[in-house]
Amino acid sequence: MASAKNSENPMLDYKLLQALATVIECGGFERAGDAMGLSQSAVSQRIKSLEVRLGQPVLIRHPELHPTPAGQRLLNHYQQVQLLERDLRTTLPTLEESAPRLRIAINADSLVTWWADAVGELCRTEGLLLDLVVEDQDVGLKRLRDGDVAACLCASPQPIAGARCIPLGEMAYHPLATSDYIACHFPHGPSADAFAQAPAIVFGPHDQLQHRFLAQYGYHGSFPYHLCPSSEGFVRLALAGMGYGMIPRMMQADALMAEGKLASIAPGESLSVPLYWHFWRHSGALLERLTHALAEVSLK
Hints:
Blueprint: H1 2-8, H2 14-26, H3 29-36, H4 40-54, E1 59-60, E2 66-67, H5 69-91, E3 101-106, H6 108-111, H7 115-126, E4 129-134, H8 140-145, E5 151-154, E6 163-177, H9 179-185, H10 192-197, E7 200-202, H11 209-216, E8 225-227, H12 231-239, E9 244-248, H13 249-258, E10 263-264, E11 271-280, H14 285-295
Parallel strand pairs: 3-4, 3-5, 7-8, 7-9
Antiparallel strand pairs: 1-2, 5-11, 6-9, 6-10, 6-11
């Protein structure tokens, strides 16, 4: 009897998995319903059905919405199935076709510098749509581990179970500020006293670039800083003389220094941050082609 029942009710109903993925992606049931063309109660019912079938919760609703460990495993599986289905449609064109979409965690500096040039041609030729989630280099991997994204760019070289990791190179950062700011706060160059008093600009609460730069000078104390979670805004704060910040050399730092708009508080010094591309194994040819395109990028 049990076997007959299981054959009539497959273990995985992908409409239910789609609901789970959409709730996490949209950050709530109401917005997930809007995205799926369903009512909020219909989405909630699909999640309940999935939890009944699984025999355990897939979502933690309070204090903030996030998947349980079981929900994370289902999201990982769903991400990979979506990619494999896309490959199947290329060999069976009579299947219903929809534009492929990849959800990727990426650091803001890569997004505003080299990323578009690296993936633009592939997106055009493949009709690929990207859903980009901006995260600091050090925390993007959590998105992948949680099943929220299919791939991520981050600073960690350690792959997670079921995923591959390849190095893409390094991004160089320079500690830049206006000449007036430097004359005021660093008249004698970098020092512990200056670091303790001079306002810095930090991208977000998880951003460790500033701390790593200060550690190169043996300074591990506290320092005043502005929080600015925008790459463009970050540079504008520096240009306004509000602080010094770690600005990527590629397409930003070199040009700003050449134009005399910003200068280094420590001439000749920089910080190199490695970038690694993490993606699920067995996720299909499309992700492999994207990986190949990224592997051709020359970072410095």
